[in-house]
Each structure stands twice: as C-alpha cells, then as structure tokens.
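Project outcomes to date are best conveyed with an example. Our students and postdoctoral researchers have been running inverse folding experiments weekly, and each run begins with a structure described purely in tokens. The record below, which covers 198 residues, was selected by the lab manager from last quarter's runs and is presented without edits.
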C-alpha cells in the first residue's frame, strides 16, 4: 500500500509541471484560456483530475497491473494561438518536453544526495521519462496526437480516433511490446543520465 501511495504521489507531482508547461506555452502564444481557468500555476491542486491522477492510478498500482493515469487537461483555443496548427503542436510538445527536463533535474539531484533521496529522485525521473514518451503516442487524447493535425491528417479521421482513443491505447499497451519497450527505455535512460551526473 505504501509503495502504491508513493507512486501516485510522484505521478501527481510530475503531472503538475507537465500541465503547467502546456498552459504556459499556450499563454505565450497568445491564448488566454489557461490564464482565465487558473492553469498557469505550479499549484498541484490546479492540475489534478481526481479520477485520472489519484483514484485510477492507485487502483492499478495496488493491483500490480502496471500504471495508467492522467492529469487535468489544459483547455486551449486554437483560433487564438499564434502560428495556428504549428502553435498547437508546440503547446502539445511542451508537456513531454517538461517531463524530460524534470527528469534531468531529478537525476542531477539524485547523483549528489543521500541514498534515500537519491532513490526517490531516480524513481521519479524514470516515471517522468516514461510519461514523456508515452504521451508521444499519436492517439487522442495524448499529446502526440496533435502532430497528426499538424501533418494535416483529415479532421474526421482524427475525430474517429478520438472516439476510440482510450480503447486504442489500452489495446496497444496490452497487446504489443510497446509498454515493455517504453519501460526499458526509461530505465536505461535513467541509468545513463545518472551515471553521467555521478
């Protein structure tokens, strides 16, 4: 139980800079929607989706079935974004990019602290890298799906993918080796970066 709670807490802390990055970049590109909705903040309560950030991740972690979860999506108005679809892609990529940056900072800290703190930072960094690459899967509602629109995939195809997005993600993660590959990649990258800083 304790391990599952720590996993959920780490996940919640990682979703905060991820969603903040979406909101901040959208604001910088001219969309004031995130500002009006109070999302340009690092307050974790502003970005929590109680089902996706806490309840479901806790249930899955306790069952030992892996990990799944999400933060509260940041609403944006594409018509207000500078550079149109390209601006929307920048907003989408800001989330995964923040996870990579955060992982680097965590591992830099892990390499120069005591064992307990180092272990926690390394664990958080590994999950952060996993989330970065997971969010790049080009299936709605994940961030990578916005690249489909940038690549001018017809909107009706995107909308059809969005209708079954969650189911498609579950199928891909359970019926292919993608999940195992992402887990292995995040572990190996975490170790490589830790060794670099150490």
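After processing, the design step wrote out the following sequence:
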């Amino acid at each position: 139980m304790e391990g599952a709670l720590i996993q959920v807490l780490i996940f919640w802390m990682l979703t905060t800079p991820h969603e903040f990055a979406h909101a901040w970049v959208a604001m910088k590109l001219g969309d004031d929607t995130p500002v009006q909705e109070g999302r340009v903040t690092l307050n974790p309560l502003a970005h929590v989706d109680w089902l996706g950030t806490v309840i479901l991740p806790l249930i899955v972690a306790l069952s030992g079935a892996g990990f799944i979860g999400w933060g509260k999506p940041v609403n944006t108005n594409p018509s207000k974004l500078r550079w149109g679809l390209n601006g929307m892609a920048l907003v989408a990529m800001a989330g995964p990019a923040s996870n990579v940056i955060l992982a680097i900072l965590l591992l830099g800290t892990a390499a120069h602290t005591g064992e307990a703190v180092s272990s926690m930072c390394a664990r958080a960094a590994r999950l952060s890298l996993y989330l970065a690459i997971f969010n790049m899967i080009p299936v709605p509602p994940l961030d990578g799906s916005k690249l489909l629109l940038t690549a001018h995939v017809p909107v009706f195809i995107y909308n059809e993918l969005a209708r079954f997005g969650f189911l498609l993600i579950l199928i891909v993660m359970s019926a292919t080796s993608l999940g195992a590959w992402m887990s292995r990649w995040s572990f190996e990258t975490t170790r490589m970066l830790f060794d670099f800083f150490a």
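The mean pLDDT is 93. Residues 2-28 form the longest helix (27 residues). The training component of this project remains on track.
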